Structures are given as C-alpha cells and as structure tokens.
Amino acid sequence: MNDAAMIWNLFAGVLIGLAYLSAFAFVAGLTLRLFLYFKTPVPLKIVQTPGPKNAPGVLARMAGDALIFPNLFQADKALWLGAWLFHACLLLIFVRHSRYFLYPVPELVIDWQAISIYAGFLFPIPALYLLWRRMASARVLFVSGLPDFGVLILLTAIAATGMLVNYYARAYLVDVKAFILGLLTLTPVAPPQHPVFIAHFILVCLLLIYFPFSKLLHAGGIFFSPTRNQIDNVLYPRYVNPWNEEVRIDQNR
C-alpha cells in the first residue's frame, strides 16, 4: 500500500469517527436538553393571553407557532417572510436529502424532489437576508453575538457546498448513498474521494454537534414554552413550594 492510500484510509477513518461523534452529540445533547426542559418546574400561570381554553386549543396554537409564526407576522412582516422561507426551504432540503438515508426511497420523497431542487436554490436568499438584517439593524446588532452570525454563515456554507456537489462538481450518487447507508447500518465504508462532498459532510457534522447547545434548539424548545403551552384557566391549581413544608417542619421542632 502506497503512502497516498494510507493517508486516505486514515482520513476516511477520521471522517467516519466524526460522523458517529456528531450523531452521538446530536442525539444525546438533544435528549438531555429536552429532558431538562421537561423537568423544569413551571409554578406560575404565565400563558400569553388570549390563550386557549382546552388541550385541543393548545395543540392548535403550538402547531400554528411551529408552522406559520403568527406572532412574528404581526410584529415584522418582512422578517416573517424571510424567516418562514428560511425554515420552509430547510424542510424541503431535508426531504430531498432523505433519499440518501432510505432504501427503497418512498414515493412521497420522489414526488417532492422537483420542488426541493428549487428550495436549494432559494435557500441562500433568506439566509443572507437574515444575516444582513442582523448587521443592518442597530437594535438587532446590539443583542446579537458571534454564535448568531456563525450559525447563519455555517448554514449558508452547507447550502453552497451542497449546491456545488449537486449541480457543478457532481459527486457520484451511488458512492454517496453507500457511504451514508454504511454509517446507518454500522458497516461503514470509505466516503467518496470528492473534496467538495467531504467539505459539505464535515460542515454538516459540525452543525449536528453544535445544534443541541445553541439557539437552534428553539426547534424543540418552542413546545416547552410555558407562555404558549398552557391552558388559559383561572382555576389552575396553586403551586406549593415543597421547601415551605420543610420550613414549617423545622419551625415545629
């Protein structure tokens, strides 16, 4: 085996290790963070009024918040359009990429391939708009930190390398799918020797590692927001702090 082959085999092993590390960090981090959200006590009735009066109303409200962002629409329609297109394109891109993870590929995924292609071309527009807005608005810039810019830049870089792989410096689809399915079935094979695909893959791994520890977790955290997931009921049981009982016991001794 020559030196080039040895170096490639070592690099392929590092990529495979990075893939499993990113998957573990994503699943474990997401599970832990959502579990902590679930276990956090909510002693106060702080539902945003007017609120739903029953559980189906809460479900409808949460679905609306996750799908159409009604509060953002009322506050800033230009931002709403950019944010909604951003998330819609992400969803369609994920549907398109699911063909690499599924075998056989479901008919629904095949039917959505055409529209998902346009989502890939459209995605950089809302991403760049959100990035521009953070820099153009003094108020937004004041409350923005490096992670806010970093995530948008990372997502834009992922989209750019993905478009290059699909339409310009094309990677062989069979090799890509063999690599992904090998990771999923725990029988990993070497990735395609395609520099743009490797760059795209590394960026996605970095995103997975960072996701559970970033503001991107609003994707799951929105369902644990007490202002949105509570029933507007004045007869809500009063919360009793368990420490109070301990204090009373100590005072009676």
Report what the structure shows.
There is one protein chain. The protein is an all-alpha fold and 253 residues long. The protein has a domain at 63-233: Up-down Bundle (Fumarate Reductase Cytochrome B subunit). The protein has helices at residues 3-39, 55-67, 70-75, 77-97, 107-111, 113-122, 124-136, 138-142, 146-168, 173-184, 195-210, 218-221, 226-229, 242-252. The termini are far apart. The model has no long low-confidence stretch (mean pLDDT 86).
Task: Give the SSE layout.
Blueprint: H1 3-39, H2 55-67, H3 70-75, H4 77-97, H5 107-111, H6 113-122, H7 124-136, H8 138-142, H9 146-168, H10 173-184, H11 195-210, H12 218-221, H13 226-229, H14 242-252
Helix pairs in contact: 1-11, 4-6, 4-7, 7-9, 9-11
The helix/strand series, from N terminus to C terminus, equals: HHHHHHHHHHHHHH
* Number of DSSP E strands: 0
Rg is: 23 Å
CATH architecture of the domain at 63-233: Up-down Bundle
- Overall mean pLDDT score? 86
CA-based shape? globular
Top-tier CATH class of the domain at 63-233:
Mainly Alpha
Largest sheet: none
What helical percentage do the residues reach? over 70%
Distance between the termini: 80 Å
Distinct helical segment count: 14
CATH topology of the domain at 63-233: Fumarate Reductase Cytochrome B subunit
Strand content: under 5%
Q: What do we call the CATH homologous superfamily of the domain at 63-233?
A: Transmembrane di-heme cytochromes, Chain C
Main structural class:
mainly alpha
**Which stretches are low in confidence, meaning pLDDT under 50 for 5 or more residues running?**
none
